Amino acid sequence: MSAVLDHHAAGDHAHDHHDHAPTGWRRWVFATNHKDIGTLYLLFSFTMLMIGGVLALGIRAELFQPGLQIMNPEFFNQLTTMHGIIMVFGAIMPAFVGFANWMIPLQIGASDMAFARMNNFSFWLMVPAGLMLVGSFFMPGGAPAAGWTLYAPLTLQMGPSMDAGIFAMHILGASSIMGSINIIVTILNMRAPGMTLMKMPMFCWTWLITAYLLIAVMPVLAGAITMTLTDRHFGTSFFNPAGGGDPVMYQHIFWFFGHPEVYIMILPAFGIISQVVPAFSRKKLFGYASMVYATSSIAILSFIVWAHHMFTTGMPVTGQLFFMYATMLIAVPTAVKIFNWIATMWKGSLTFETPMLFAVGFIFVFTIGGFTGLMPAVAPLDIQLQDTYFIVAHFHYVLVAGSLFALFAGFYYWSPKWTGVMYDEARGKIHFWWSILSFNLTFFPMHFLGLAGMPRRYADYPMQFADFNAIASVGAFLFGLAQVYFFFFIVLPVMRGQGQKAPQKPWEGAEGLEWEVPSPAPFHTFETPPKLDATATRVIG
Predict the structure, then answer these.
(1) Tell me: the pLDDT tens digits for 252-272?
(2) Cβ-proximal residues to 154 (8 Å cutoff; 6+ apart), any chain
(3) For labeling, which of 136, 245, 250, 401 is most exposed (least CB within 10 Å)?
């Protein structure tokens, strides 16, 4: 995060003195600088991560033992619903947008994002939306309790907080669309001369493709929740069978958004890992072009697999076969990426600083998540696994060990450039080992619970599931504590500028334009486009 926030005053960079950087609260409220907006996104997403994490700990506290311990089932369902919505829309997506804001202009040699004021607007839209989501707990009847997928007919029966949730998601969707337009225009129009598309860093590629996905699917979500809203208040019957509607239609519309959404949350993570692994292997990324094509393939295929979430809704066998094969097919480009990262490390000169630990941890645990995703892709198997804890384990392996671990890898990799100081390496390694061990302690037992038939979203369970649930709950509290440790002992010190001063290029094997500017990155970078060498990774002269 952009620590040493007042490095202008300190006179670190003489040329910063006449760039009239705003100061005080105006700098943040009216921020138009991509670095400041990136910092705001990261702080917002971490706040939401902590709130969503507290909800998750409420869920795990209730499930520590069989029987109802500390809450009624209705409140338990509010927690499962809001935990999912807050983590997906409030924590993971904004965190990646924060990385995009910080790094894309630095990586392509642009002076800033294309639409600076729209950038500010798209961030500040998120704050009221986040407040509305959290505030829904204090409305009559409590927060929505329809699951994060907001399935009808439950959504048609919820109290007024459902409307607040719908409004919040509309605003978040508008924010995402504006952010995506900004990213696309920046990448396509503002690259430094000589940086062709096929010389761009992988992080920029994955975000370019993600931004197109967001623009394609966010309006679909808006449509689904608007139809829910009109069913609730304006007498329509889109999803109400009594009026000729169909609740399964909601699932089709939702998952047509929801499955590409899963890749929206993992493609930027692939981009970060594709930056970190070559840097600490001291080698070029193996198969760069194949990585670009694999990312594009994942994006295209993500539109034709949505109904694998719906194998138990009674679709015809032809439909089941189509979605089964399409889902298996999407594993191919994903595997290409895994093999390419491993091939990059092969015979490399590896060192294991914290960013690399998180990257290798990501590859290991994300691969487990990928395999457990292939299993319910088989329709007959899915009928057993549908809505059990096996599915919970699968998507947390992808989203926590996937998205979140990649975000940590990116933070440790780039924070010296953001803050001008090095994080404490020993503390970073503690954070990694504490996180990966407690993560596996939490979610690995859930595979067995699911295979034994324990359903999701239930506040109580039979005695035979007690031991694994107790283990998972202990793991969850340990994992939550690891993230509190991360904030207080790693993030706060670097934001305050405590630590060893970071060199311009702290990692020996790192390549790219971001390492051509001083640490911390000055308020204004690349005011004149840099002249690039043949590889488009270094500035000439």
Answers:
(1) 999 999 999 999 999 999 999
(2) 145, 146, 147
(3) 245
